[in-house]
Write a structure and sequence with these properties.
Elements: H1 2-10, H2 22-40, E1 44-45, H3 48-53, H4 57-70, H5 79-88, H6 90-117, E2 124-125, H7 132-136, H8 155-158, H9 163-190, H10 194-214, H11 223-226, H12 244-265
Parallel strand pairs: 1-2
Helix pairs in contact: 1-6, 4-9, 4-10, 5-6, 6-9, 9-10, 9-12
Amino acid sequence: MARSEYVKWLFNLRMVMVLTILIPTREMIIIPMSRAAQEMGQPLNAFETCIAAANSGVVLLLLPLIYLVLTASFPTADENMLFYIVRMGRKNWILGEMLFQLMSVLSYCLMVVVLIVVQTAGTSFWANGWSIAVTDFDKMDYALTGFHMGTLLPPNLFYQMPPYKALFLSYFLLALFLLFCSMAFLWGCLCGRKLLAFFLVIAQIVLGCGMCEVKHVLMWIFPFCHSVLTVHYQKYFRKYAFPPNISVLLFLSVLTILAVLCYRKAKKVNLDMIGGDVFL
């Protein structure tokens, strides 16, 4: 079941939308960071642009929106799906759908990382250390150009951890958030409210992004804010603004609850109500 859904998702014509993430990341992150590195005569770390993208408000707003559009037609309700359900039963079907969501989220995050890394890989180094361009650019006269490296890679990341850890945590939190959005959407589909669930998930993404940008005290009630690694740390002190381990725990708890709800709901759902694309 998971393999069937994954193949349909992977070869969907909408998959070209993943390429649209190249435009904001290149214009807002890759080009400015590359120019700063050239001015200092120092190479960037190969993953620094990826880390910056995973902590940029604009890019983080686009990533889940694009993913939701890519998965808007799932779970599918064609003849093959009905045949699968008859053969394997509803329990195995819903477990297959959950496995497909996990596979698609991991593949999507990997695509994003690869698409960003290949643009700077030829002029970057791969060691587990921050580049001088990132750590020292804002201390030099180069910062008089108007560009501040701290707006893309703030000190509360490179003062707290090495880049490989920042890369893993950034995309692990992003993957958990995408999985949360996908599971919430699946729950809405099983309840026969596919369109409503789609727009509610989008609404919490947009509202969460806004709260995260203004650093409002209520931002931690929005799942989106828990997916942004940089807001978990203070700027200089080794003290959490909000422990990232707690964010991971909250995501896993909510995902477990949603998985149980979906599993139980699948036993009695009307299959005629779950199919169809929200855009059709």
